[in-house]
């Protein structure tokens, strides 16, 4: 295999050597490291600049970008620059340990050619080698590779007393091998730190008390678990996050293929230990159902398998099925497994010929439900795979194939006629009585070059999630999920097994540069097919969200020129002109000199969408740039602070004391606790209208579909490349059988009287239910809800309570949490009659409202106005929260409380139906509240506002309506 220096990996190493230029390796002082980091941050931009009091240095590198190679290279660089000889690599699993050893073996000659030194490797299996060489030969460049289990117990070999060490050579007199090691002040590397958070491990690890590097693609998010803050990113020195890696052509594209129907999804809903009973959720005729099951009882949905035990969030059955409590858990029947296997084999052969012509071997990875499916007496998945593979191979051999490829396929069988293209690796594989099986396991784990050779027939690998972090292969081109994954395995981790860029038979990695920077050619080879059941809920959408959420640099708070370079085809002059307008003319971004980054000050999308100057400047690129900012500003905000600033945005917003009294009066009047009451409901009208609407609704038949989607990393969007209907689902027999139970369940779930529902169902077109029970009941539920609300709007009334609403006390402290008002901060001065001292907002129009001085509306004075922190109005849909409230007073002392709901639409017809319905309930609420307060000489008016109106126009309109009344 050919190894080459990659610029991004070298940048990581350069950052580290620059950081440690003034670090004292004899003392390993945490405060000294802190000072080095502070100096580094003055000259370099990092998205996370949190400093810890520990000796950690953190490196975030996306899966598949060569993390292991980078830290092995780092060992040689630290030896070269700082004469450091002793290192420890900690890994969470044996498979990762073997992978690291394999990488050291593969890179041995490369690093020798670069540094003229070999790296000696030790592990915990050789006590004498550690004591006699690693410890005593301090001039030897060596690394000790350990799992956490090697040191996390007092009974471990390394924690036992060692009498053989020459204590004269050490500055202290440790009692155990590990303490002898600690005395050397070795530099540690923690691989996948999110998997090494155990208290026992860190208790022993802390005894090293020396510099350590944490290399990971995943770090815990602060606040999710009690100890996450301790292990969250800090002392960051390099960041190559998920989106950066995709956009820089450092990992494969992803295409997701979805097969089948989700109509039989099964998962554990809850478990009651005292009663030893579990509740399972599944679907019947496309409708969700539940079944209660006690231990040792059979479950018809799993072909009569009995429930053996339930622990934590998993249920174990006699057929070796495991159902997860997570809603994504499911069970696949034999037909579904066969369909997925068939598709995987088709895709493999589809690309194998093309890749073979380029000297690239294609590998496929399968995640299966149970070991028995591959190694059992009747291994269904293995047997089915063999049958399908042979059939597809025979079909292929009838075609006009390249002779070299035909010869390649001739290797598929051994001398005895046994198929030898497939093998499995499972967590219990420590040895095997079967020599061929053992050889296959060894090749998968330890012999990457042999596995990549076109002379090796093995190219289909099966596992039960045992191949996780630490194991990947650059030539995994197809990944098939034949089982639902456990809740602690993210989609990103699954995909990570095949993200690395592929290599050819010369060991050359197929990079973007290698393909002459041709996107089409690059992605024609470097893409990963993922095949999943339709029971996987929004697999690619969830993957995309995980990628976005795990990214730090490309957040909605920072705008980089690199991002714009992708959008504007690298035209530097155009990028500079656009950035200048954003910064100088529109003041949407500001350059932070300390962090050397452009900070987004205000929402860009709203500000540029109607800007003619920018439209003219960007030309054809304008729509793409506009969509980019729309997506950037609408995605969820990253939970980590990306840039620390001395001029920090306030966590609290200050309430102006001189305005608080007036607004408190307004707030206490409009923020009334209320409950909904109904009078004069016309049931028969609802029934007749619901039946009419339902019978007019088109309910199409459900069908089995096949979809192929691709994740376009450059545009960060999902593209559907192919969609095929495989056939209709016939619900007629099952619905006739289940109809009564389904209606009963529907009545309970929708909280509708059964008698009322049966009257509607009796008049409904039954064929629509047979086409798709799920779609029909969903449509019926929405129609009934709409008709009820239409009728209720005429009958609704609000009963206002004299009790104070809990949220009325929010103004008592003189401050409000900033997040209750908005996400953007501006350092300017708000209007004199605006309640808060700071400008916090969510949209451009809100900022204009807050800063515009409007003290009078004709003859009325605006005494105070404010963006509402949390005004909740109950509606039959959901709670409703208006935006702004104004306190107006006329010359006669009459008070008008104006509540406004601003909507970001140019036309009222664009407002979604459910939003309009909530607005209508809010109008009812405030009309009745105004009537209640009429004797107090107070009028309350509620209005909605769209983009074409200014708030001032709304206020004047309100005044006109008020005068008319």
Please describe what this structure looks like.
- With 965 residues, this protein is an alpha/beta fold.
- It has six domains: 235 residues, 3-Layer(aba) Sandwich (Rossmann fold), CATH 3.40.50; 62 residues; 183 residues, 3-Layer(aba) Sandwich (Rossmann fold); 77 residues, no CATH class; 124 residues, no CATH class; 164 residues, no CATH class.
- It is 38% helix and 20% strand.
- An eight-stranded mixed sheet has the order 17-18-16-19-20-8-26-27. Strands 3-4-2-5-6-1-7 form a seven-stranded parallel sheet, with helices on both faces.
- Helix 3 crosses helix 4, helix 10 packs across helix 12 and helix 25 packs antiparallel against helix 29.
- The longest helix has 24 residues.
- About 2% of the residues have low confidence.
Oligomer designation: single chain
Based on the coordinates given, report the CATH architecture of the largest domain.
3-Layer(aba) Sandwich
CATH fold-type name of the largest domain: Rossmann fold
Rg over CA atoms, rounded to whole Å, is: 33 Å
Placed side by side, the strands forming the largest sheet appear as 17-18-16-19-20-8-26-27
Q: Main β-sheet, in a few words?
A: 8 strands, mixed
Average pLDDT rating: 81
How many strand units? 36
For this structure, what is the CATH homologous superfamily of the largest domain? P-loop containing nucleotide triphosphate hydrolases
Number of domains: 6
Question: Strand percentage, roughly?
Answer: 15-25%
How far is it from the N-terminal to the C-terminal residue, by CA?
A: 85 Å
The chain-level structural class is: alpha/beta
Number of alpha- plus pi-helical segments: 32
Organism: Campylobacter upsaliensis
Domain Helicase ATP-binding: 48-237
Keywords: ATP-binding, Helicase, Hydrolase, Nucleotide-binding
Protein name: DEAD/DEAH box helicase
